[in-house]
Design brief:
This protein folds into two domains: about 50 residues, DNA polymerase, domain 1 (Orthogonal Bundle), CATH 1.10.150.20; about 240 residues, 3-Layer(aba) Sandwich (Rossmann fold). By secondary structure, it is an alpha/beta fold. It starts with 17 loop residues before the first helix and ends with a strand. The structure holds guanosine-5'-triphosphate and magnesium ion. The site of guanosine-5'-triphosphate has 14 residues, from helix 7 and strand 10.
């Protein structure tokens, strides 16, 4: 019997030519497993092929894809034993998510402008350098800054408020500007490299969605945008898993997240982001320095909301 041809690249799947493979790669689908798990409608939209063709391609991809194995519950338990928690600076907010932001997970902070997303990210960058007994992870941080809102001066004042040496803290924060969404995604690859040399325990993306929103505006690019965001989130989650790190991302949304997430006309990767993030915390303004943080559909913890305060010292209980 003739030896079966090895199936390694997208082009090895019957029905996928060079042009289709390129369209898929442009949309972030680079290997057979990613193709195999694509929804039919997305494949139709991205590859610009008929439903019939797409169905055949998916059947083939699923046959050849290495879908992975089931793991036993005790192995998952063993891995979860290493989960550590990072304090937000507010005990109330920490308790909302079971004692701080978890490693091996993604936490999304979403809310309108001025709701405190960037301030919380700054506080996390400082806190991760704290020793474990003070709620930190005794580690370093990576920030992917898409809106140029990182302020070292703010890190300094937050550090001083915790009796930390600002210069030491700043040395442990690695910042990269992301100039567009593909650059933003590449920076996660870079993060894996940096983490080989530095004990990175936090990777923050502020804002996760801003570039995607601008670059993929309009209905026709919706499927593509969701694919890219999905891929980006999974890359981040992989980083969280490999380095037992916290991932914190921000997402600016309209003042009515309930409406926003239910309305397909609204931009920004609502569903994709929502489904990949393990913890989703909505933020809204209250009186003066006070903000209301609310945990939304968490698998592990009850919904609830707390008041926090964003003061000169940083994030504290409200
Ligand atoms: P967008 O990125 O525009 O969506 O907003 P955001 O959610 O990131 O808001 P951000 O975290 O930038 O919050 C800005 C608010 O934080 C300001 O309006 C101030 O209320 C507060 N803030 C920022 N810096 C300081 C500071 O040094 N001291 C105090 N007390 N408050 C500050
Ligand atoms: Mg911001």
């Amino acid at each position: 019997m003739a030896k079966e041809k090895k199936v390694e690249t997208l082009e090895d799947i019957p029905g996928i030519g060079e042009a289709t493979a390129q369209k898929l790669r442009d949309a972030g689908i680079t290997d057979i497993i990613e193709l195999a798990v694509m929804p039919l409608a997305d494949l139709v939209a991205i590859a610009e092929i008929s439903e019939n063709q797409a169905r055949k391609i998916l059947e083939a991809a699923r046959k050849f894809a290495d879908i992975g194995n089931f793991v036993q519950g005790d192995q998952i338990l063993e891995k979860r034993k290493h989960i550590a928690k990072l304090t937000t600076g507010s005990q109330a907010l920490d308790s909302l998510v079971g004692g701080g932001l978890e490693t091996q997970s993604i936490t999304e902070f979403f809310g309108p402008f001025g709701s405190g997303k960037t301030q919380i990210i700054h506080q996390l960058l400082v806190n991760v350098t704290l020793p474990e007994e003070k709620g930190g992870l005794n580690g370093e941080a990576l920030l992917i800054d898409t809106e140029n809102t990182f302020r070292p001066e703010r890190i300094s004042s937050m550090s001083k408020a915790l009796n930390l040496n600002p210069e030491d803290v700043l040395k442990r924060i690695h910042v990269a500007r992301a100039y567009n969404s593909s650059h933003q995604m590449l920076l996660v690859d870079k993060a894996f490299e940096i983490a080989k040399e530095h004990p990175i325990r936090l990777i923050a993306v502020d804002s996760l969605t801003a570039h995607f929103r601008v670059e993929y505006s309009g209905r026709s690019s919706l499927a593509e945008r969701q694919q890219m965001l999905n891929r980006h989130m999974h890359d981040l989650l992989r980083f969280a898993d490999v380095y037992n790190a916290v991932v914190a991302v921000t997402n600016q949304v309209s003042a009515r997240p309930d409406v926003f997430y239910g309305d397909p006309n609204q931009p920004i990767g609502g569903n994709i982001v929502g489904h990949t993030a393990t913890f989703r915390i909505s933020l809204r303004r209250s009186k003066g320095e006070k903000r209301i943080a609310r945990l939304i559909d968490s698998p592990a913890y009850p919904e609830g909301e707390v008041v926090i305060q964003i003061s000169d010292e940083g994030v504290r209980d409200g």
